[in-house]
Amino acid sequence: MDTENPSAHPHAQSRITGKNHPHAGGLVHDNARHTSRFTVIGNHLAQHPELSALAIGLAVYIQSLPAGARVDIKTLAARFPEGTTRIAAALRELEAHGYLRRTRERVGHGRLVTRTVSCNRPGHDRGADSSRPLGTPRPKKTAPKPLPPVPSPSCPSPTLIQQATDLVADLRRHDRRLLLAERDAAHLAPGVAAWLERDVPAAAVREALTTDLPRESLCRPAALLAHRLATQLPPPPPFRAPAPPPPADRHPLRNCDGCDRAFRAPTPGRCGDCRSDLPEAA
């Protein structure tokens, strides 16, 4: 990173009286021209409107390091006083905005290592960069990580899926960081439907997804929601057997007016053997 800036003017420009005079109380630059040990940083990073100050500082530090330097969380936490939690959150910010790419690769003896690529200008076309020697293969683009799987309802009716989709789309009203892409909402809807199918009220599903979210920015909110839907899925409701039918009405015992035997009937009278209107008695 000790390369001299080729775009820098070879001589310090003289100050033009009047044009460069700062407003009263405003910023005044006292600049000296660097000739060695300096790093070129774009204003898109130094003045990034969404990155935290810690993330910007870490990006500048990482871009100033030589190739092969260790930039894992523990190494950075040993260098800076913020601690591993804040360092990890800042690295996730840089990864979300394209200033870092981290991939896990398998090396000899089955070991896994993390390869970190620092980008000083996210989104630039490496093929148009004259610093890449001719014949050097272009680096492969890292595909976005797929979202974690979510549970599926046993009976995904259109009404249930629509109710789940509406619930997912409404999460942004409770936390603006949960504004999701349409494809992410479609991925999460079956998981929400599985909760609703298990007699979980919509308010309880919403609370489970929005309570105790990290305070820092969410790099992949859809991935966090998918993880919660899968790991916190409640059990099915307890089985409830249908209520037994009411017992049949039992008539009171009565004495037959003919033979004085006991029989059950709604009203007094003769038993079946003594009834004159039966076919056998005719």
Please describe what this structure looks like.
With 282 residues, this protein is mainly alpha-helical. Among the domains are: 43-123, Arc Repressor Mutant, subunit A (Orthogonal Bundle), CATH 1.10.10; 158-231, no CATH class. Helix content is 30%, strand content 7%. The strands form 2 sheets. It has a two-stranded antiparallel sheet with strand order 1-2. A two-stranded antiparallel sheet has the order 3-4. A hairpin with a 5-residue loop joins strand 1 and strand 2. The radius of gyration is 38 Å and the shape is rod-shaped.
Quick recap:
The chain has 282 residues and is mainly α.
- Helical proportion? 25-40%
- Spatial extent as radius of gyration: 38 Å
- Supply the number of helical segments: 8
Shape: rod-shaped
Largest sheet: 2 strands, antiparallel
CATH top-level class of the domain at 43-123:
Mainly Alpha
What is the CATH topology descriptor of the domain at 43-123? Answer: Arc Repressor Mutant, subunit A
Average residue pLDDT: 82
Could you tell me the strand content as a percent range?
5-15%
Question: H/E order of the elements?
Answer: HHHHEEHHHHEE
Number of strands: 4
CATH architecture of the domain at 43-123: Orthogonal Bundle
Low-confidence runs of at least 5 consecutive residues: 6-18, 127-136
Spatial ordering of strands, largest sheet: 1-2
